[in-house]
Design goal:
Blueprint: E1 2-8, H1 15-29, H2 33-56, E2 63-70, E3 73-80, H3 96-110, E4 113-118, E5 124-131
Antiparallel strand pairs: 1-2, 2-3, 3-5, 4-5
Amino acid sequence: MTQVEIEIPPRSVYVGVVRLALASLARSAGLSEESVDDLKIAVGEACANAVIVNQETASDAPVRVHWSHEGAHVVIEVEGAGYPFESTETAEGDDHAARMGMSVALLESLVDSCEVTEGSDGAMTARLTVNL
């Protein structure tokens, strides 16, 4: 089993670093270039969501990305500060639930499995699974 953990500050400038690192890991795991491209978009979206929520909630909590490859699956977990999807509005008056719903739909279209959960500490985790 291969495991890699990356922790970045909650700033959008670091999302590209995560995308590049995971693309390299995906290629070494044997994913096709099309799957690598899809994974880069999905990971970028999940990281961007974590960064946006951190900024909206004024949290300095890091965004954590966990990569694991075992057998026929690659699993990426992106964890950041969060608030439930049921939240009605953000500070800017944006409908957070609708925005997150669209984001999850995008993630589901790019990977084989996508689960977004809230941990006991309030952190949101997007778990993305890609079959090899």
